[in-house]
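S.,

Sequence below, as promised.
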Amino acid sequence: QVQLVESGGGLVQPGGSLRLTCVASGSILYINSMGWYRQAPGKQRELVAAITSGGTSNYADSVKGRFTISRDNAKNTVYLQMNSLKPEDTAVYYCNANVRRLAAPGSYYYWGQGTQVTVSS
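The prediction came back faster than expected:
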């Protein structure tokens, strides 16, 4: 099995910063893409940012220039540095990873349990 555990969420004032961390563990051979999604109340889950194992990243237009995704392949960890936060960034943030497991064919997507980010004064 594979587990993804997020941390780093919380309450922050507009203009503030937070850093989210997601650690993958379990029977992992290697991880292809890793990413962050978010879901606000009453809205669909949306991609925030994603990064390949080679370091190529892409971002939602709404966070470009404010958020930075990075990863440490040796630690099976992905980060999301969020700066200049806005109230509209308030959501539950989920980690996602495409994982090739040990002794198992194919690659599968796994999700973390989510971490709440609230931007409010």
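The mean pLDDT is 96.

Coffee later?
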